[in-house]
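Quick question: what would this complex look like in 3D?
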Amino acid sequence: MSGRLRGKRVAILVEEGFDAREVADPMAALREEGAEALLVGASAAAHYRDRNGGPTVTADLAASAARVQDFDAIVIPGGFAPDRMRMRHAMVDLAAAAMAANKPVAAICRGAQVLISADAIRGRTLTCWPSIAVDVRNAGGLYVDRPVVRDGNLITSRKADDLPAFAAALIDALLAL
Amino acid sequence: MSGRLRGKRVAILVEEGFDAREVADPMAALREEGAEALLVGASAAAHYRDRNGGPTVTADLAASAARVQDFDAIVIPGGFAPDRMRMRHAMVDLAAAAMAANKPVAAICRGAQVLISADAIRGRTLTCWPSIAVDVRNAGGLYVDRPVVRDGNLITSRKADDLPAFAAALIDALLAL
């Protein structure tokens, strides 16, 4: 544990159907650097199952109680969880507020669906799971197919296999704050 | 079995993660009226699991072998299967061809994702599962929240609970051919 990110707090959004690696790997990478990583769900203490009905995680905090000023960055994991997150106003508002505040927002796989619902990607360059590339373009985003894309505060990746590059870009962005 | 739809052939698209009722109920309603209902998958004889990992169905025909002229209508069930269907060019092309030919196209839940990828909903009024309403609007569709919407050849519903109205609208459209 290097402690380079000590004092930094990061919200990792979670909902039913999340991709287990896309939650666990960024969390481990952040904690390894000394950051605090909190799971933000629709309700505090709610349990969420991953997309295979397997591992369960427990939310540390409800999205409605999460204030953007209390966090240095937001992570939006993928799987099918973003399909549910985007119907949670508090989650969409939190992501929108982080984008408006120019704080690092890191979205992987279908995580960009939340940013589409927040109308936060117009004119921004990003990547995502290919099934939603057309939705990203229709929302005004400039879709590219690369393992990780950083456009200002916005960090995006395509899939779990991109996680090492995704986590490294997130840590770089937090170190630069 | 009334036989009112004898001689009519309908393609029901299928992929991994389909909603079981949204495949089974339209199929049963069509067959009850004497229509032939075929499951069209990415590959012929491929097996697909539903969104809960439960019931498996087997494709009768590969999308690449399905010609729009051989069918009177297309059904696009929901669940998370449309997320995969929209990455299958042959499925998207089949849906696009049916829209272009003005044949009945019935999409329920997230089925509209396939029509977004086909760029087939500009100026059309439709409904869908609410998570993708913003994607429908961004693709030029006019989203409304009703159990079933019929706009010309396009029939859409929101969710499995809307299936009786959805199947009835599909049968009406086939009877009117």
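Answer marked as accepted. The CA atoms of residues 29 and 167 of chain A lie 7 Å apart.
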